[in-house]
Amino acid sequence: MRKIFLILFLIFLSSENIFSFWNGKFFIEIFPVARISTRNFYTEPIDQLYYLNYFNQQRILNTGIDLLWKGLHLYLAIDIFRDLIFDSTNFGYSNIPMTPGGLTNSVNGHWPTVSYLEYSHDIIELSLGRRGFAMGYGDYGLALSATAPYFDGFWLGLKPTVGKGKLFYYFVAFADDRLANENYLQHNEKIWNANHPSSSKNSFSYDQISKWCFNHKIGYAGVNWRFGISESSVVYGVPVTLWNANPFTFWHNSYERGMNVTFGISGEAVFDKIRIYGEFLLDDIHLTTEGNMSNPSAFGIYAGIDWHVLPDEGYQGHIYGSRQHVKREESFAYRGGGLLLSWQFILATSYLYSRSIYDPYGKVTMMHNIRGEGGDKVMEYFIGSPYGPDSIVFEFSTRYEQPNWYFLGHMTLQLQGRNGYDGFYSDATGWQAQGLYDPSHTSDWVFSSVQHVNLYFSMQIYYLLVSWCSLYAGWENRLVLNNIQKSRSTIETGVAMRF
User: Which of 58, 61, 66 is nearest to 13 (CA)?
Assistant: First the structure.
């Protein structure tokens, strides 16, 4: 069925003249890549960072429609790349998904990974479909980050002019992968039965298999500064009501079952060539009047500085990858060329994004179901900071652009504590899902003892040969300083073509 759909879609796209009256086009991207890696593909598990990078890898083929017309933007594409199970368990010298078993055994069939309809105007913006969403002013976001693979959801933005600035309001809603949720809960009898309403063993109960996330933010932007207040609600195991989806309500004080609510403030300011920004996210606060079994205090702090050292013309070629389609809130971030230096800091306390071990479904995470050889797998990832809870992160990055050159480099130091996780990768059956809240360690609520010291390096370089063709080189390195045998490095190079 997937092959039939692909053939029909390509025939449909070949009728480009149907859409010639739109200011858009049918496109084809071909991006063969050769790579070498020190990763042990036979024994090393998939962690969250591997999964997130997997979704941003170069596609051997990406083809579809990219149309613009009177404020409307339709993007619909089929991207061909390696299946996650095949990619993680087979050493590959390229991104070409071919095996002796045939194409269908090695191609990711979750088409499309990016597909949306968007409308933009001076005071309103709407988006419906599958893409990334991001709240915040840096590369990451504590409540909703651009690093997550994709969401199926809706975005509303309002930006009316008020005085000398703009009042802004954003509302985002998206749902989790239902099959992943079924495999997470229904096939795990220990979790489902213990939390089913018919069970008297637990005060937490799940009425149904579903998980949604709602996020809204209001604020004001002046000439060179911006400040916003946000609230996010993960609704899980209970039916979603209009009250949950109401963009103009306040979720926290309802104290309803099946909700994990966070509160945040964020801001940014520009001083000549310097931009500073920050975010604070409050998940829980433990009062002295509460008992030991109440959720411990949990919060996150995110801060960053950009320095636009050297202005220049921007890169004239195409930048590839699904993150180019992330829908972000408006900010003063510099998008042009030249040299940009950035520094970022993240503190995620021990129990940020977590719930009790008796209520694991309520973590601030989303899940994807991965179907491959050996059955279904469930991949769970944080929708906020990709480094998860119980982490301290320092990151320095450099971006340099001129008409023919594009360079992006990152160096990241992560201290990971006892309650930190790289991610969750499991068999659908027999997995003992757990929360992150461990009552025996609530005294270590800011940061527990260091368990891992990770040092990450990454680099991407594009050189534009002609308008439709670029040369590419990339490098990614992860050093686990206190367990060096878990370190890995990958080098790749390729040719990127867009027609």
Answer: 66
Residue 356 DSSP class: B
Weakest mean pLDDT among 28-37, 172-181, 187-196, 300-309: 187-196
pLDDT at 367: 84
CA distance 442 to 292: 9
For 134-192, what is the HEC assignment?
A: EECCCCCCCCECCCCCCEEEEEEEECCEECCEEEEEEEEEEECCHHHHHHHHHCCHHHH
One-letter-per-residue 3-state SS of 64-133: EEEEEECCEEEEEEEEECECHHHHHHCCCCECCCCCCCCHHHCECCCCCCCEEEEEECCCEEEEEEEECE
User: Considering only CA atoms, which of 155, 159, 143, 70 is closest in space to residue 348?
Assistant: 143
CB 266 within 8 A of CB 228: yes
- CA torsion sign, 104 to 379 to 475 to 408? positive
Location of structure tokens 């709240």 = 135
Rounded distance, CA 465 to CA 159, Å?
A: 40
pLDDT digits (tens, 9 = 90+) for 423-448: 444 443 334 455 677 777 777 888 88
Residues 473 and 397: beta-carbon distance below 8 Å? no
3-state helix, strand, coil in the chain (%, to 5): 15, 45, 40
Both structure tokens of 264? 């945040």
Answer for the pair 326, 139: CB distance below 8 angstroms, yes or no. no
Say which amino acid occupies 221.
A
Q: What pLDDT was estimated at residue 374?
A: 57
In degrees, rounded to 5, the angle at the alpha carbon of residue 111 between the alpha carbons of residues 108 and 117 is 150
pLDDT bracket for residue 449 (50, 70, 90): confident
Distance CA 144, CA 154 (A): 14
- Taking a C-beta distance cutoff of 8 angstroms, is the pair 458, 409 a contact? yes
365, β-bridge pairs: 382
